[in-house]
Design a protein that fits this description.
Helix content is 7%, strand content 38%. By secondary structure, it is mostly beta strands. It folds into two domains: 51 residues, no CATH class; 89 residues, Immunoglobulins (Immunoglobulin-like, Sandwich), CATH 2.60.40. The longest helix has 13 residues.
């Protein structure tokens, strides 16, 4: 989940308002936080104001004392699922090798979260960049990964890769008795 997106959206909405503005915040069924200027049932109402009204007497707002800023996290220049390949087909009891391509390499303060068909795989270590999926039933699968920087909260996700598991047919020639 991109933690910066909701705050960026809120800041843009606040910056575009000439005076006080009302913004509504809500979380959908998938846990995604949304901001809007239109009321939605169950949404939290947030009132924003222009910077001029923050100071006493209408003067400019004073900057809050901030601790020393954290250094920016190393930007991930390449992040993709290397294996399985898009639309790859696996047969029978073959294992499905899963491998993440990440440049630069995963740092100690970064974690990887894997999702198979939208559900988080809880049996993988937070630093797992490769593993195997075993004994998957026949069907179509989508796998994706998200790398999260634990220091800054920034995250970056791969595109989802679709692959298929097929089971050999009893009617296929290699299974006929001779």
């Amino acid at each position: 989940m991109h933690l910066r997106r909701p705050w960026i959206a809120l800041c843009l909405l606040a910056a575009s308002a000439a005076g006080a503005a009302v913004v509504y915040k809500w979380t959908d069924a998938d846990g995604v936080v949304h901001f809007s200027d239109t009321a939605v049932p169950g949404a939290e109402k947030i009132v924003t104001s222009s910077p001029a009204s923050n100071g006493i007497g209408g003067g400019p707002a004073r900057a809050a004392a901030n601790p020393e800023p954290k250094p920016a996290a190393a930007e991930i220049s390449e992040l993709a699922i290397e294996s399985p390949a898009q639309e790859e087909v696996f047969f029978g009891d073959n294992v499905v090798p899963v491998r993440l391509h990440i440049v630069p390499a995963l740092k100690p303060h970064q974690t990887v979260t894997w999702h198979l068909n939208g559900k988080q795989l809880d049996d993988q270590a937070p630093d797992a960049v490769s593993f195997v999926l075993q004994t998957l039933p026949r069907g179509a699968y989508a796998i994706a990964a998200t790398v999260t920087d634990q220091e800054t909260g920034a995250s970056q996700s791969t595109d989802s890769v679709t692959f298929y598991v097929r089971q050999p047919s009893e009617l296929s020639p290699q299974h006929k008795k001779q």
